[in-house]
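User: Reviewer 2 asked us to show a designed sequence for the structure in our supplementary figure. I'm pasting the structure tokens here. Could you produce the per-position amino acids so we can include them in the response letter?
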């Protein structure tokens, strides 16, 4: 492999305290094709990156996702590594991340931070949030991925071009992970080290707001992949609410009090909830038929021997 075949893609927003050393580290590891997509940093991040020999492009919109989507259009090299610019990932681990891709075993490799993180790298909230989000993702998409939000990844240009990406903020890693699953890419996870963020650079992630957006992204995108999961959650909420009001209605009835409006509400909640399950079953059925049709078309299009 020629070192120019790998593009190191770094999104940055005010990371002046770490970007210089990070680029030095990657160059030391033999990677010279370094692309920084900068969100118009005010602290000289772009100038530092340029002085260290990286190609710097300015982001035209806002958010990490918009930056990544814009930067992907500039990449021509067959292999890509994406890495955050805040110095939390180690350049020397790029080789183990790239290995499965270079050996043709995987299309997309995720650096799993959750096995080996330094004390303080995750706040307690971030750690719990990460684990919950990964569990939710695994149930929704029927896979076993441990760290879908990781910012250190290696993939082929070809597999990256297959992904349909629209998310502009911190939901981008989620969308990438979902798209990899939907496009049936071979995804592998490799353990990596995760270091605490430098004290000098502030985080851009709001754990509550961004955590909620990430959860909604997983849920929203599941409609097309696992409709039973999508409609089942809505249905369960309504049925649970119906059981709650229903328990009250029955308890009151035993005491001789009849609650007519609440009984009607209970019936409506349970009927609506059950309908969601019927919706999910039908959607699952339609999806199965659609998948069979697509498979048939693919087989028909295969060149005959
Ligand atoms: N170009 C660009 N980069 C961004 C933007 N927002 C964040 N980044 C970069 O994306 C990377 C990840 O952002 P972080 O703030 O470190 O988010 P995080 O790693 O999920 O959260 P921490 O654990 O707090 O570090 C960093 O290199 C940021 O500088 C943006 O709007 N535009
Ligand atoms: Mg970070």
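Assistant: Here is a per-position design you can include in the supplement:
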């Amino acid at each position: 492999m020629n070192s120019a075949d790998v593009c190191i893609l770094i999104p940055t927003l005010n990371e002046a305290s770490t970007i210089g050393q990070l680029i030095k580290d990657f160059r030391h590891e033999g990677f010279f094709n370094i692309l920084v997509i900068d969100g118009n940093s005010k602290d000289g991040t772009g100038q530092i990156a340029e002085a260290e020999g990286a190609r710097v492009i300015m982001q035209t919109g806002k958010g990490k996702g918009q930056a990544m989507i814009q930067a992907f259009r500039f990449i021509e090299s067959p292999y890509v590594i994406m890495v955050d610019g805040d110095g939390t990932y180690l350049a020397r681990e790029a080789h183990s991340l790239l290995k499965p891709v270079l050996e043709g075993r995987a299309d997309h490799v995720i650096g799993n931070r959750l096995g080996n993180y330094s004390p303080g790298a995750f706040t307690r909230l971030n750690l719990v949030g990460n684990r919950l989000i990964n569990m939710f993702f695994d149930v929704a998409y029927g896979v076993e991925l441990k760290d879908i939000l990781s910012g250190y990844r290696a993939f082929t240009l070809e597999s990256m071009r297959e992904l349909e990406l629209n998310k502009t903020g911190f939901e981008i890693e989620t969308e990438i992970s979902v798209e990899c699953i939907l496009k049936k890419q071979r995804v592998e996870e490799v353990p990596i080290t995760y270091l605490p963020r430098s004290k000098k650079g502030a985080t851009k992630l709001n754990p509550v707001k961004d955590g909620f957006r990430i959860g909604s992204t997983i849920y929203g995108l599941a409609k097309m992949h696992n409709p039973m999961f999508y409609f089942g959650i809505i249905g369960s909420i309504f049925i649970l609410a119906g059981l709650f009001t229903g328990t009250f209605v029955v308890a009151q009835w035993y005491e001789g009090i009849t609650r007519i409006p609440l009984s009607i509400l209970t019936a409506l909640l349970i009927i609506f909830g059950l309908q969601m399950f019927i919706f999910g079953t039908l959607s699952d059925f339609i999806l199965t038929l659609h998948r069979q049709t697509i498979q048939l078309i693919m087989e028909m299009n295969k060149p005959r021997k």
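For the response letter, you might also mention the following. The mean pLDDT is 95. Residues 227-301 form one domain.
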